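Morning!

This is the sequence you dropped in the shared folder:
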Amino acid sequence: MKNRTFVSIFLVAIVVCGCKEPAPRADHVVYLCFDAMSAIGIQRAETPNFNRMIENGAVSLHTRCGLPSNSSPNWMTIASAAPFEMTGVLDNGVTPRTGTVVPALKNEIGFFPTIFESVREQRPDAKIYFFGDTSWPCNMYGMSAFDVVVPELGKRQHLTPDEAFRKAADAFVEDKPELMFIGIGTPDHEGHTWGHESRGYFDCLHHMDELVGGFVKKLEENGLMKNTVIIITADHGGINYAHGGSTMAELEVPVIMYGGPVTKGKVMEHANMNYDTPATVAGLLGVELPWECHGKFLKEAFEPATDVCYVPVPLIQPFRGTVPDGGKVSITADAEGAEIFYTLDGSQPTCESTKYDGPFGIERTCTVSAVAYKNGNYGMTASNFLYAALPEGKAAVHYALYRNVYDEVLPDFSRLGKPAAEGYISAFSLEDVPFSANEDDFAIVFTSKMRVKEAGVYKFELSSDDGSKLFIDGKCIADNDGSHTLQTRYGFAELQPGLHNIRIDYFEDCEGQYLYLNYGLDGKPLRPFFPDELEK
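The structure's back. Tokens below.
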């Protein structure tokens, strides 16, 4: 009898302990998606409203988009909770007729179904609204799932982000839809125009922050945030003037969650994928997604907060290139009360390093590394390789710039005639070459002599957007030719001590402009050339 009682109690204990916590739910979800708003971008920009939402909500800075980091595939993924291999949208411009991969599921227009369609099927009485500064993602979405679409389909309308947010806020207060999707493409345009490390891009993110802040304020003033969760994310990030590559600046996007049952002050430490975010939207509304969707619910955002707090990465300016004679290096961090510490030798800064107390000059070429420190937490480290201004006549890299080069591969420079501009600069980069930020269709030849002090096999890392080739003593070492977004190629050369001829051919087709060269003995860390390693 005693044994049977023990077994009964044991089985009850198993049942009780096996019960799952009820899944977090929300009456309303606002899903805000921005084109090309990178995780590192919102940290560098001034975003007081995002910061307030992070402090009182949850944040992930390590959510990754799919590769390639282009718009259409990732806009499809953040609407469907499925990876590219399932949606069949592998790159920009894919349609059901042109796609090489058949979608694992198809909706009425031949694309993979979105979470909006799942909400419509399982909650037919729910109100689902779409707002955006343009309606361009609509060609991939089953738009019949929405009760309201602004701007209207088929009218080629374009709203400013300000208009889109104003209309969305008014509609939410008046109608209280269960799900509202807001898609804003403006940051992508600014990134392509000014560069993702530029003041223009950061100002754009600051303005997006203002618009979100106004939207949230209106909901709070009307008592609508208690049972509403706002989720903010992006399709991809960016680097230089473009995206599409595999750098972390392009791959990592933010996820900010605010309101309802979201844990206040929760920093999500696990890495996620961008298809997890829409799965969380669906989960909050109690909607199940098809088996073919791979997204998981971001339960970490609802778990108890730890002592880890949000500390953004510092912004070091200038971002790259030469600090002019008399110029200063400035470091900022968008975190009230944070201290900044930096080093000039490439080492990892800590709170024992030099404390930043204002702009400073540099006397020699160096790597400036900085961290922000707050409440016992360090943010990510920022590192900029900066050249000190050289005395007149000491710059050793000769450039020859040719304009009106309309090719999708490197041209035959011997046929281009006299260059439009030429001179000497400090490095193999585009920073000090005289062309405009938005200029396309040009080519450059960089030449110098590299001084090798130690014999051995040297590894070269050539990154460019668009094409480039590296030659050492006339031999092609790294071939990165062709019209493409930022990509990197590697090459090796066995070199003896002494001077060796070095040349880089580069061309810019359209949009992104980038060139960078790192090198070092094979097996050791790679870095750019220092001025004393180059001669005319």
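Headline: The radius of gyration is 26 Å.

More detail when I'm at my desk.
O.
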